[in-house]
Amino acid sequence: MALEKTLGGPVNLTDPLTADPPKPHPKCGVCAALYEQWRHAAAPSSTAYDPSKASDIAVEMKRHHDNSGAVKVQS
Ligand SMILES: [Zn+2]
Per residue in 14-37, is it b (16+ CB within 10 Å) or e — as a string? Predict the structure, then answer.
């Protein structure tokens, strides 16, 4: 039956704020620390769950490296 097909599997919706998990740069302590914060902020089961904060952290993780992936030195 067509109805059974349309009701088939579960639909997993992705949160637009957290659909693209940040990728911590290997050997970068800043990334590691930010990623740990992101994990808590992005996990609905976490007491620190805050999608807006998770998005901010993801942006911060991307921004503190330049396009080559090198760590930006803050002057
Ligand atoms: Zn980093």
Answer: eeebbeeebebbeebeebeebbeb
Question: Which residues, in sequence order, are bridge partners of residue 14?
Answer: none
For ligand 1, the distance from its centroid to the CA atom of residue 14, given in whole angstroms, is: 25
pLDDT in tens, 25-64: 899 999 999 999 999 999 999 999 999 999 999 999 988 8
Are the C-beta atoms of residues 49 and 8 closer than 8 Å to each other? no
* Tokens of residue 38, six digits: 């992101």
Q: If you measure from the C-alpha of residue 65 to the centroid of ligand 1, how many angstroms do you get, rounded to a whole number? A: 6
